[in-house]
Amino acid sequence: MSKIITVFGSTEPQGLSLIHSLLKDPKYTIRAVVLRKAASSDQARKLRDLGVQIFETNLEDRKSIATALEGAYGCFLFTDTDFSASNPEELEYQLGENVVDVAMVKKVQHIIFSTLPSVRQAIGISAANCDSKARINDYINERELPRTSVIFPFSYQNLATVFKPKKLQQHVYGLEIPMLNTSINMFDVNQAGPLLHYIFDNPAQTMNKTFNVVGDKLRVDEIAQIFTKVLKPNEFKDMKMQVEEFRRLPGDGIEDLGNMFEYFARHDLRFNMETTKKMLPDVKKFEQWVVENKTSLYAML
């Protein structure tokens, strides 16, 4: 009999990658939790097209969470930060707490939580997207639930979306990432699925542990050099953006993200390449990802 895995955050990149990986494995039956407000989204439609069982859920409604977790062996939990909310950190924490409480009642045997370190505890300033997840992780640990915590770093895909290069002039682009001369840990989020799959397959080796996974570690100027090398004839530059400049940009949550980058710049996080390779032998370096995605990256410019 196959094991049921309930995926919270199924339309987000990490959850979607896990679903694609588990679909290849008959040991598992997948339940994709889709927020009711996103039930008609393209991502939800694609999941239905794949034959995945969809559970439309409101994470404020514990009854609907219980339905999604009924009889489940395991669950993957990714919580999103709604920076447009009046208190993004508290909202995310409460929704995560709801899932954890129900998972405890339903006796889920393995919870994988996608967490982040607490910026507030480390440097005394808040980053809602990090601090909320750190609090949820603490809550899981306090209840001694069977869990694996995974910290994913900055994704390569961010450089094609929210942090895509800014056009300065014809064939010249700038990278506005406020890391200065500090290297940033990175990872291909599309490889999250096989890594999480490994964790579900190997509970004896992964249960009650925290894994800081990484694919590459580069300074912003090194990222620019790789883009320049692969995406000819374009030239890419590190704009040497300061955190203070970044915080002045428009948009919800920009101060939180600025505080997160300040934390990244001040703390050399111990992401473990050796452990990552054990779980994911074909983990991709950044340059490999750029080469493989060259066509879409050209189109993005």
UniProtKB/TrEMBL annotation:
Gene3D superfamilies in UniProt: NAD(P)-binding Rossmann-like Domain (3.40.50.720), UDP-galactose 4-epimerase, domain 1 (3.90.25.10)
Keyword Iron tagged: no
CDD domains named in the record: NmrA_like_SDR_a
Record flagged with keyword NADP: yes
Pfam families registered for this protein in UniProt: NmrA
Domain NmrA-like: start-end pairs: 1-270
GO cellular component, as recorded: nucleus
Keywords linked to the UniProt accession: NADP
Superkingdom, natural source: Eukaryota
InterPro entries (alphabetical): NAD(P)-bd_dom_sf, NmrA-like, NmrA-like_oxidored
Similarity comment: Belongs to the NmrA-type oxidoreductase family.
PANTHER family xref list: NITROGEN METABOLITE REPRESSION PROTEIN NMRA FAMILY MEMBER (PTHR42748), NMRA LIKE REDOX SENSOR 1-RELATED (PTHR42748:SF7)
Protein name: NmrA-like family domain-containing protein 1
Native organism: Strongylocentrotus purpuratus
